[in-house]
Amino acid sequence: MTQQQLNRRNFLNSLGITVGAAAATSVPAIAPAVAQVARSPKGNIPSTPLKFGHMTFLTGPAAVLGDPSLKGHILAAEEINAQGGILGKRKIETITADENAGTDANVKELRRMKLSEKIDMFTGVISSGNTPALGPVAEELGLLTIFVDGCTDFLWDKAVPNPKFTFRITNIQSADGVTCAVAAAQTWPTAKKIAHIHPDYSYGRNAFDHFMIAYKKMVPGAEVVSEGWPKLGTTDFTAHITKTISSNPDLIMSSVWGGDYVALYKQALRYGMFNNAKFASTIAFGVAPHAIGKDHPEGVIAGVHSNYYFTFPPGNRWPANKTFVEKYFKRWIEYPNFQSDGAYHTLHMYRTAVEKANGLVGGWPDEEAIISQLEGMYFETAAGYLYIRPDNHQGYKDAVTGFSKNVAEYPFQILDPGRMITIPIRNITAPPNWPKPGTSHNDPTSTYNWIKETWPQEVA
Amino acid sequence: MTIFIIQLLNSFFYAAVLFLIAAGLSLIYGVMRIVNLAHGSLYALGAYVSAWVVGGTVGHAASGTLGLAGLLLLLPVGAVAVAVVGAVIEPTLLRPLYRRPEEYHLLITFGLLMILEDAMKFLFGGTPLTAGSIMDHMGSIPIGRLLYPTYNLFVIAIGLIAALGLWWIIYRTKFGVILRATSQDRRMAAALGLNVSRVYVQAFAIGCFMAGLGGAVVVPAQAAVLGMGIEALILAFVVVVIGGLGSLEGALVGALIVGLVRTAGIQFFPEIELAVLYLIAMAVLLIRPTGLFGRA
Question: Are A224 and A363 members of one domain?
Fold first, then answer.
């Protein structure tokens, strides 16, 4: 056990966390890949348009995330088409589908888009309830797919354990709860009584599980003093807030998002919920940045789905972000969120893979050739470098979160540029080939089991 | 004890808003025998219009000259707007279908729901709209060592006044007698010389006004968000299933039961918070299929 009795500071140091404006990705900035001059394509390229299916929430409460996703997709498609299309020949045509139709209808729509619309590529999808249903169908149809979100660990743990055609670009869901736990344990190491408010579906459950397993390792004696499981789409949180306050927590942890979160913090302010307890969220600032008012409490951990916030990495250190934010703002008169980043770079990543495959095989590369280039790809995005792990086709980039702050430059509250927290993703997620749930263990995810088995237990 | 009082007030607040929505739904069904699936979306429309007016430039101007009073005067704009929309919908979309079977009513109001949801997203965008300035003006009052927002008490009062007002209109005025007569036998009412078409427009507009008022009063406390209408519609149905569709008393008692049970669920059984409401509705359906105050 002596080896296990690391103190928290040593352990946190070993995670490679960086705090502050200086933090950027661990790799020095090089010229953006998108800015590199494209080589002229090899072989004969057909000029038929490429058909993309983009499924996202066009209606319903989650449209607040669907909108930025579609906007990111359209922006990238317009840029590529303005240069003549992919490999200079094939322009992108997008057909959209409303994810709000429900999982069964979405599966039918995916089949319809492939079989009767003959789409070449499928992207989008926000909900963790939908990717595990759509993934196996995309595999069955042999349809090249890059999911923008729907980031549940379950997709690669259980639903599609050996993906061939399906990929996903945003960080895996377990990273969200773990990032939040690491940030909270580092900032408020004495907070032991934890109250939770989470939406009652897979995302909220996942955030709860991974926050607690990681937090308990770092803060011995941490316990759950209150739980609230509002339905997704709830806007009345008064009873949850009163219950939370009545449990006298040191720290309140939440994964409520979107319009629900705006309603939650507005009500919590008037009940004084932020007065006597610290607050940490996985995704408070993940919705469009302008949705958060200046009345939001400052100095709380306001997560961004551990993926991306538009002010980070700062433009002078990471030109790719500056360029992306400027282009996005010019097109849509608003700032991008992590869905915009994901959807936008999905197209550019695909284009890069096609160009590389073309350089190898000439002509228009087939799916196999494109997949071989996507696997293991190291790709520059606005958020930093993204790595597509070949074993599970999951995109990994350094996890990011931060603290809320009002600044004069923006009419809404932002993440404090001087206190951004980044954590190398490999330090908070299970490595390749770690046993999946249902094999040697029955924990919720591989990462949950990996943390349970390998992280040192801090002793009081 | 403090927690108990505040949770009780939370339940009343929730019940007040639910009552406004469910009473309108019940009134429309009681008079016109139409199950209005677009009712929740009309509630959302009231919320969006009020948030847009109070939180926008008009609200800033009113707040500058009249302060809190100015903002409170602007708040019902959403309810009035929804009543006007109702007065247009009834003669144009619903009237041609009264003689058709119920399925047609469901289809047209469901279509209306979809159109309204899209129209709101188109008009107001995907970002939540807020009108929090009213709550900031009113502040919070201390209860024990905790705080309770003063505005929430105001909403509870509005719920009570609306319940009394509706009861008075329906049971104590001539218009109420006409409403009830039309509700009981439309053809007889027409034969006795009542202008049934006008009664229908009025009843529908009042029902819509109630929904819009629910949206208007809820928006300073929460926010106008996409999908809030669907959520409200489902809850309003739970209320009228428990209370009895078409009954004003039923809407009031149903809203109180839903408010209290939901809060108790959140406080004591967080894991089954989602299920408790539907369990109650199921129990009522098994024991009294017409609801507590419903007519067979």
Answer: no
In a domain, A75, yes or no: yes
Task: Establish if A153 touches chain B: CB-CB under 8 angstroms.
Answer: no
Amino acid at B173: T
Residues A378 and A407 in one domain: no
A348 shares a domain with A284: no
pTM: predicted TM-score of the whole model, two decimal places? 0.91
What domain count does chain A have? 2
Distance CA A19, CA A11 (A): 15
Question: Which of A63, A229, A239 is the closest to B10 by Cβ?
Answer: A239
- H-helix or E-strand spanning residue A225: strand A223-228
Tokens 């009042």 belong to B206
Per-residue confidence in pLDDT tens, chain A, 460 aa: 344 456 777 788 788 888 876 544 444 444 445 544 556 888 899 999 999 999 999 988 888 899 999 999 999 999 999 999 999 999 999 999 999 999 999 999 999 999 999 999 999 999 999 999 999 999 999 999 999 999 999 999 999 999 999 999 999 999 999 999 999 999 999 999 999 999 999 999 999 999 999 999 999 999 999 999 999 889 999 999 999 999 999 999 999 998 899 999 999 999 999 999 999 999 999 988 999 999 999 999 999 999 999 999 998 889 999 999 999 999 999 999 999 999 999 999 999 999 999 999 999 999 999 999 999 999 999 999 999 999 999 999 999 999 999 999 999 999 999 999 999 999 999 999 899 999 999 999 999 999 999 999 988 7
Look at residues A356, A378, A396 and tell me which one is the last residue of a structural domain: A396
Name the minimum distance, in Å, from the CA of A143 to any CA of chain B: 31
Q: DSSP for B49-89? A: HHHHHHHSHHHHHHHHHHTHHHHHHHTTHHHHHHHHHHHHH
**Is B127–A295 a contact, with Cβ atoms under 8 angstroms apart?**
no
Q: Does B118 touch chain A (CB under 8 A)?
A: yes
Q: Is residue A458 part of a domain?
A: no
Q: In the numeric block, which tokens belong to residue A446?
A: 């591989």
Range of the domain at A112: 50-173+317-396
CB of B222 within 8 Å of any CB in chain A? yes
E-only strand ranges, A128-172: 145-147, 166-168
Q: For residue A45, tell me if it sits in a domain.
A: no
The owner of tokens 């800033």 is: B60
Reported ipTM: the value is 0.92
A427 near B CB under 8 A = no
Q: Which residues pair with A154 in a beta bridge?
A: none
CATH at A332:
3.40.50.2300
Domain presence at residue A37: no
Residues near A441 by Cβ (< 8 Å), separated by ≥ 6? A435, A449
Q: Which two tokens stand for residue B62?
A: 């009113």
Torsion of CA B243, B247, B249, B255, to 10 degrees: 40
Nearest chain A residue to B137, by CA: A270
Nearest to A242 among B7, B128, B227 (CB): B7
Q: What is the nearest CA distance from A95 to chain B, expressed in angstroms?
A: 18
